[in-house]
Write a structure and sequence with these properties.
CATH class: Alpha Beta
Radius of gyration: 16 Å
Number of domains: 1
Distance between the termini: 11 Å
Order of helices and strands: EHEHEHHEHEEEEEEEEH
Strand content: 25-35%
Low-confidence stretches: none
Mean pLDDT: 94
Shape: globular
Strand order of the largest sheet: 2-1-3-4-12-11-10
Largest sheet: 7 strands, mixed
CATH architecture: 3-Layer(aba) Sandwich
Helix content: 25-40%
């Protein structure tokens, strides 16, 4: 059984993420303890609310360092909603707050007649996606006003030493990044824990891949 830590940093409704992961057979612990985080098979980083507030809470428990150490050591990390946004360089929300800079790109307000984007939407999975295997045509539950609207793989040249991330897109007014799969770092803008059977299958695909 895979051991998964859901980061307990006060950054969202973490209980629903715990229940969803337990549903797909993971052994789940809710904690911000360094040793437990570093020894887990997978780390889930949830996030709800303003980008800057989430970053403050992440740094308060030193989880920014834990995330970077896990990634440097090839240990899987999964970001959800604002937990995905903070993996980018910065956000125009919260006075241009800096993120963790794992991916190129800036998170900005959606360009749409109605914001926030709230409800079920289809996505266009990247070719070769692992997390969307078997659920390529499903809808997922979104609640957000900001997103990355540029391709994080576009700035990487063909001679880059790392494989380009697989980028899944969705549309609300304009196209935005719905998910990224980048080796051991995976994240979704939508909430898989609130996306019914499709979300459960996505989480199961991730757990089985770690």
């Amino acid at each position: 059984m895979k051991k998964v830590v859901v980061l307990d940093a006060g950054t969202g409704n973490v209980r629903s993420a715990v229940r969803a992961l337990e549903r797909v057979g993971a052994s789940v612990e809710l904690t911000a303890d360094k040793d437990t985080i570093m020894s887990a098979d997978g780390l889930v980083v949830p996030g709800v609310g303003a980008f800057g507030a989430v970053m403050d809470k992440i740094r308060a428990v030193r989880a920014d360092r834990f995330i970077e150490r896990r990634l440097a050591g090839g240990q899987p990390v999964f970001g959800i909603c604002v937990g995905m946004q903070i993996m980018f360089e910065a956000s125009t929300e919260s006075d241009g707050c800096e993120g963790l800079g794992q991916w190129d790109g800036v998170v900005s307000r959606l360009e749409a007649p109605v914001v926030p984007h709230m409800g079920w939407s289809p996505v266009t999975p990247a070719e070769g996606s692992v997390i969307f295997k078997g659920i390529e045509n499903e809808r997922f539950y979104f609640v957000h006003s900001y997103a990355c609207q540029s391709d994080p793989a576009a700035t990487m040249g063909d001679d880059h030493i790392f494989e380009k991330p697989l980028v899944t897109w969705a549309h609300h007014g304009s196209n935005f990044v719905a998910a990224v799969e980048n080796g051991v770092l995976v994240a979704t803008q939508f909430h898989p824990e609130k996306s019914g059977d499709a979300g459960a299958q996505l989480l199961q695909n991730w757990v089985e891949s770690i």
